[in-house]
Design a protein that fits this description.
The chain is mainly beta and about 170 residues long. It is about 5% helix and about 45% strand. The strands form four sheets. The protein has a four-stranded antiparallel β-sheet, with no helix packed on it. Strands 8-9-10-11 form a four-stranded antiparallel β-sheet, with no helix packed on it. Strands 1-2-3 form a three-stranded antiparallel β-sheet, with no helix packed on it.
Length: about 170
């Protein structure tokens, strides 16, 4: 069985590699940030039959996915700006969605996003008109840790979010 890792060489820098644990079975998947610039792939998580991860390209940090081939390694743009990446982080799979925090490039800052793996299915997560700003998987939230034997708030979705801090909600969970 092969796995994905961040590998490095002098010609391409830190890029996405696949390995079976042997030298001969370790190959670069794609040079995401061309030349010796580092893509520094990180936060790798399996979702939808592919490996999803964050990597830097010339425009900054973005969300990527791969099937293990150069052609099958694609960016899923959250921030359409060509000069600033969306800087996604905290990738978490829950049900049939991948959740992550990212900057949509519209001046709103970091917010919770969800994707089904398609550009059309990549959306900001909102509760009413409030934007969710943080995410934890069920079992990781304060409520689940405090009351492990009770049905938890996040059991329905598999995630627990925190809405933006305001006078009405005071950064309460949903």
């Amino acid at each position: 069985d092969a796995g994905f890792v961040r590998g490095w060489d002098m010609e391409t820098g830190a890029e996405l590699w696949e390995t079976d644990g042997t030298v001969s079975g370790t190959v670069q998947v794609k040079n995401i940030n061309p030349g010796a610039a580092n893509a520094s792939p990180r936060e790798m998580v399996a979702f939808g039959g592919q490996m999803w991860f964050v990597a830097n390209d010339a425009g900054g940090a973005e969300l990527w996915h791969t099937d293990g081939t150069d052609a099958g390694t694609q960016k899923l743009e959250v921030n359409p700006s060509e000069s600033i990446g969306s800087n996604p982080y905290n990738l978490r799979v829950a049900g049939d969605r991948l959740y992550f925090i990212a900057d949509g490039g519209d001046g709103a800052g970091s917010e919770l996003w969800a994707t089904d793996g398609t550009p059309e299915g990549t959306v900001r997560v909102k509760v009413g008109d409030k934007v969710v700003t943080s995410v934890l998987l069920c079992g990781e939230c304060d409520y689940c840790k405090r009351y492990p034997n009770l049905p938890n708030l996040c059991a329905g979705l598999g995630v627990y979010g925190l809405i933006e801090d305001d006078a009405e909600h005071h950064n309460n969970g949903w």
